[in-house]
Write a structure and sequence with these properties.
heterodimer; A: 434 Repressor (Amino-terminal Domain); two-stranded antiparallel ribbon; B: 137 residues; 4 helices; 0% strand
Chain lengths: 87, 137
């Protein structure tokens, strides 16, 4: 599934290992999601969305040929610990 | 940022489990190679028992998690593919064996009969579990 996880993670300055530890999966799982080789469970999708303080559909796009979800954050909003309010 | 979490805790246990299994297999092979099969078998049994005990202890006595959802799903897929592979191969193999037996070209031997029964038991068990799951899920 198309997703903007990598962009979100990099915007927040997190490594794959950091994000994996935060949502309690292996680094390989985060890598597989970013490479769109693994679709996370609903539980993990919720955990990722909660971590970035956004909605699931902001991270994942179920459309087969859709563009990546909007991850063009030009600041640190929605980053854990350093974000401002969502708009 | 990174904190110690159950999946990270589970890594050391996974290494221990894989290490024990590796020691067991090496011991079994080495025992056979130097004609100490019984000693090799004993070490293998102890190692596998240790690995199995570790799995149970981690599962029921620890907050650590041995695998995450992706690894769990990969195992499920591997099991599914393996079952399908042997399922279809067995189906055609036994049809062939029955055909050879029926035409008198190669009688069904005791080994083939035992394998056939084992195959039937596995298929029936699979069917029973499927029915059980339909009622539960």
């Amino acid at each position: 599934m198309k997703n903007g996880l990598r962009e979100r993670r990099e915007t927040c300055g997190l490594s794959q290992a950091d994000l994996a530890a935060a949502v309690d999966v292996t680094r390989q799982t985060i890598n597989a999601i970013e490479r769109e080789r693994y679709d996370p469970s609903l539980e993990l999708a919720f955990a990722l969305a909660a971590h970035f303080d956004c909605r699931i559909e902001d991270l994942f796009d179920p459309a087969l040929n859709g563009d990546h979800p909007d991850s063009s954050t030009d600041d640190q909003r929605n980053c854990p610990g350093g974000g401002t309010e969502r708009t | 940022m990174a904190t110690t979490r159950p999946i990270q805790d589970g890594r050391k246990y996974r290494r221990l489990i894989y290490g024990l299994i590796a020691v067991g297999i090496v011991s079994l092979l080495a025992g056979t190679a130097i004609e100490r099969s019984l000693a090799g078998l004993v070490v293998y049994a102890l190692a596998v028992l240790g690995a199995f005990t570790t799995i149970l202890l981690v599962r029921y006595r620890s907050s650590a998690v041995l695998q995450d959802e992706r690894e769990h799903r990969l195992e499920q897929r591997a099991s599914h593919i393996t079952f399908q592979l042997f399922g279809y191969l067995g189906l055609f193999a036994f049809i062939g064996l029955f055909f050879l037996d029926a035409t008198g070209q190669a009688p069904l031997g005791a080994t083939a009969e035992t394998l056939l029964y084992a195959y039937a038991v596995i298929c029936l068990t699979w069917g029973a579990i499927c029915i059980g799951l339909r009622y539960r899920v």
